[in-house]
Structure formats: C-alpha cells, structure tokens
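TASK: fixed-backbone design
INPUT:
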C-alpha cells in the first residue's frame, strides 16, 4: 500500500503528465487512456473504463483497462440504461445497480466500484469508473483523487468537442470560400493577400499560389477605375469603427489580367474586426461585370440610336405633310408628287427600322430565328428589292447579273427581302459619290451564292471582322453623318444562318465592298 505522502507525489506526477498531454496534443483517445491508467493505479484497482455520452443520452465506452474486448458490447448495453437527472447529474440508484451488475459480469471478485461523472459546466459528458476487489465503500480521499483525474478527462473531452466543432466550421467556410462562384479574397492590414479562391484565379489569371502573400496592388493592376479606391479609402480612415452603418466600399473598373487581357470587375470590401474593435482583415468579394457592363453599354447605344433613327424620318414626314397641307398655298402637281414621294420613302424607312427591331428582339429571345421555307425564285425577290431601292438614288447605277437558269431555292421570301433591303441600302449609303451597284448570283450543285457590290468607301480589315456584331458601326466621317443602327448586317447574317447558309464580306478600304451570302439548294 502506498503511504499518504507517496500517493500525493504520484497523484501530482500523474496530473502533470496528463496536463502536459492535454496541452501538447488534442488526441482525445490518448488523454482518456492516460486518465484511466492514473485512476486505476491510484485507487489500487484492477479494472476501469471511461464512457462518454454520445449525441442523445446514450453512453459509449471510449477507454478501458483490464477489460476483455469481448465484453465490450455487453458493457455498452448496461451503460445504455443509465439515467441522467434533470440537473444533469447521474441517477445514483441506477448507477449503483448497473455498476454492480457490470462488475459481477467482468469478474466476480470485483466487489467495489468507484464512479464519477465527467462534468463541464453542469453538463455530464461521461463517466469514469474504477473496479476493485475491496469490499465496502470508497473513502473520501479516493473520491477526491478520482475527481482530480475526472476533471482532467472532462476538460479533454470538452476541448476535443470544441476542436471538432471549430474544425467542422473551418471546413464549411473553406468550402464556401473555395467553391463560391464569385471571387473571394482575404487581405490583412498590410493589404497583403491571405486567401484567394478558385473563381479569382479565373477572373485575374493569377494562380492562388502566386497571389498569396502578395500586396493586393500587385495582383490587381487597374487599367482604369470608374468608382472607389481602396488605398484612398484607407487613407481616409476606412474601415471606420462603426462601419456597420456605412456603405461597404465598392471599387469598379477595368483590370489588367496576368496575361495582359482585360476584364471589368466590381469589388466589395467588408472589414473584419477583432474584439477590441480594430480591423484585422478585409474580405473582398470580386465579381466579373464585363457582361453586365457590355449589356449596359448596348442598352445605352440602343436607346440613343433608336431614338435618333426614329426622329429623322418622323421629322421629314411631319415637315412635308404640314407643308403640303398648307391652306394658303396651291402646290403644283410635281411638287405635290415629290413631297408625297419623300413621305412614302420615309415611311418605308420607318417600316424597315421597325422590322429590324422586331427581328432583333425575336433573335434575342430565341437565339435562332423562325423562318418559313418555300420554293423561292430569288432573282424575282431580288429584282423587286432593287427596283424599290433604286428609286432612292439618282447617282447610282444598278445592274443585275444572274445566269438565266438560276435555280429556285427553299427560302423565306420576307426574310430574304429584309436581307436584300439592308445590303442594298448600305451599298447606297456607303457609296456617297455614286457609282455602280452590282447584284449578281452563281450556283453549284448544292448551293447558290448572291452578292451585292458597290464602289463606295469600303472598310478596314478590323471593321470587316466586327461588322456583323449587334450595334457595330465602323467609325468614319461618313458613318457619323449617315443614319444607321448597326443592326442591319447583324440581322442579315442571322437570317442567312437560320437558312443554314453563311454571309461574309470582301472589301478594300476606299474602293468598295462586296457582300456575299450563300444558301443551300
Ligand atoms: P447601319 O445601320 O449602321 O448601316 P449595318 O449593320 O447595316 O448598320 O452596318 C454596320 C456598319 O458596317 C455600318 O455602320 C458601316 O460602317 C459598315 N458598312 C455596311 N455596309 C457597308 C458598305 N457597303 N460599305 C462600307 N461600309 C459598310
């Protein structure tokens, strides 16, 4: 038997060892094993166990000493019957009954059990039990000693639980951060990048491994800033202490990506404060706003060109109509005729414009145009278009060059007429000094090709590449003067493609252009 002094020294040694294990590692199983070993040795017992409460009320054995593993499932079923009182303590009656049964089952010689609940903040986390051969009840000293170990085990269990929760939370946050569709980064107070998610790699072209620990200004190189400025805001005191009431800082502009290309982005910065109210991090949410900006730009162009385009024919129609309508003048037939012709032409132009707008909005809504194919004599449709448009100019000559056996094709007559109207009116508009406008066709076994050529201003290679885009207008002195929406070629190409055909242009700057389309037979 140990003397009281020896016992105290050993108890202190054990406690030291356990505390060291507690602070050195977060391995719960290891700490529980140590606690149990110390408890059994100090109480001169033979057998011991630690059971922890699982979710709900049930107990599960987490550490054993001197117990044959084959008894484990029985142990668990005895422990399942333990009751927990409302105040969180264990019901002593069931506890004693169950422990007696348990001890008997393990070894009939185990006549005494000493048990203590593991408690943290009144919450029973588990149970520490030591069985021994003495008869009678445990002494106050025994219980005190066991309590000192039980407290250590309780702390370890509590820590492990907290650690598991924190770890779970950390993983959840990291998953949200990493897989968010928006770019997210975290900056420290020196404005160095501490975290950089996958979406940001795509937006900026920088790999996370390259961007981490870099100053934010190095990775985010602005070509142009439209709104907000991080360094400026910080110089003015951002983030303010009562930041919650302030607007988040928003910075928007064009960024130069790592490969030199550009992207429009918007960044929202939100600060993270520590307990004493100092900011420790900025959490930045980065969004690619290129499409949004482009859509806004298109909408602006749309509104301004359309209103401008509508105003011109309306003004002409209104002017001619009210002039011809004057009561105090009698107009000679020629003037009357000329005035009415202008009105008719301008009304036609309005009509064409509205057609183009409707087709554009259909195209935007459905991506592909609906067309109604019929056996179509293209030469006839084209002839009618030329006849109508040739009246609009006295300085152009028109020539039609189709082989006599030019085949009929499956096409949508109304749509093809719209294409021809666009090509012909462009040929007139963009050859202001007149000249020859030639419309012709060729065919092979499986396709027909139609072209419209003019001797006008032509266009640069760069313009040829962009011409078929919505709202695109080549920037020249002439196009600035001439009316246009930049929709005609975009729609014409879409119409031809809906026929499974193609459209392209061939042009020399200053010498004229030829537009081609090809349809399958
Ligand atoms: P717009 O309404 O401006 O004429 P389009 O889509 O029909 O719109 O044409 C787009 C741009 O292509 C025009 O603004 C013009 O700059 C250029 N373009 C079209 N046709 C010709 C042509 N025959 N010759 C020279 N430039 C042309």
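OUTPUT:
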């Amino acid at each position: 038997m140990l003397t009281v002094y020896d016992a105290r020294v050993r108890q202190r040694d054990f406690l030291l060892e356990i505390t060291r294990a507690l602070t050195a590692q977060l391995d719960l199983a290891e700490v529980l094993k140590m606690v149990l070993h110390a408890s059994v040795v100090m109480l001169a017992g033979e057998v011991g166990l630690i059971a922890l409460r699982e979710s709900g009320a049930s107990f599960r054995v987490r550490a054993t000493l001197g117990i044959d593993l084959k008894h484990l499932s029985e142990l668990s079923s005895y422990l399942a019957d333990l009751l927990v009182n409302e105040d969180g303590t264990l019901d002593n009656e069931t506890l004693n009954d169950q422990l007696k049964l348990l001890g008997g089952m393990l070894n009939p010689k185990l006549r005494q059990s000493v048990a203590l609940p593991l408690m943290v903040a009144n919450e029973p986390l588990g149970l520490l039990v030591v069985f021994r051969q003495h008869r009678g009840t445990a002494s106050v000293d025994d219980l005190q000693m066991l309590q000192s170990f039980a407290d250590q085990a309780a702390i370890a269990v509590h820590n492990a639980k907290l650690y598991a929760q924190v770890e779970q939370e950390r993983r959840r946050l990291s998953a949200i951060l990493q897989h968010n569709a928006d770019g997210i980064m975290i900056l420290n107070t020196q404005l160095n990048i501490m975290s950089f998610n996958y979406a940001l790699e795509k937006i900026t072209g920088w790999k996370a491994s390259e961007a981490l620990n870099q100053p934010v200004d190095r990775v985010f190189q602005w070509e142009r800033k439209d709104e907000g400025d991080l360094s400026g805001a910080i110089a003015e005191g951002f983030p303010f202490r009562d930041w919650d009431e302030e607007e988040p800082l928003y910075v928007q502009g064009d960024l130069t990506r790592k490969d030199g290309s550009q992207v429009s982005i918007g960044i929202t910065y939100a600060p993270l404060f520590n307990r004493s109210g100092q900011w420790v991090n900025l959490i930045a949410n980065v969004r690619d706003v290129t499409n949004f900006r482009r859509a806004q730009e298109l909408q602006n162009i749309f509104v301004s060109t359309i209103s401008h385009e509508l105003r011109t024919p309306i003004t002409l129609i209104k002017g001619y109509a009210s002039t011809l309508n004057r009561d105090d003048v009698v107009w000679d037939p020629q003037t009357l005729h000329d005035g009415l012709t202008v009105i008719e032409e301008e009304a036609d132009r309005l009509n064409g414009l509205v057609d183009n707008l409707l087709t554009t909005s259909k195209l935007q809504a459905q991506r592909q145009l609906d067309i109604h194919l019929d056996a179509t004599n293209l030469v006839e449709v084209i002839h009618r278009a030329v006849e109508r448009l040739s009246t609009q100019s006295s300085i152009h000559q028109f020539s039609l060059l189709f082989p006599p056996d030019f085949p009929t094709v499956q096409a949508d007559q109304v749509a093809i007429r719209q294409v021809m109207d666009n090509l012909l009116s462009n040929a007139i508009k963009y050859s202001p000094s007149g000249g020859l406008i030639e419309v012709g066709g060729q065919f092979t076994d499986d396709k027909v090709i139609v072209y419209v050529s003019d001797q006008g201003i032509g266009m640069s290679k760069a313009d040829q590449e962009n011409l078929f885009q919505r709202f695109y207008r080549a920037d020249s002195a002439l196009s600035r003067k001439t009316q246009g929406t930049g929709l005609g070629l975009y729609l014409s190409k879409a119409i031809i493609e809906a026929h499974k055909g193609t459209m392209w242009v061939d042009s020399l700057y200053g010498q004229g252009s030829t537009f081609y389309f090809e349809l399958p037979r």
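COMMENT: Residues 422, 426-427, 430, 454, 456-459, 467, 472-474, 479, 484-490, 513 surround adenosine-5'-diphosphate (CB under 6 Å).
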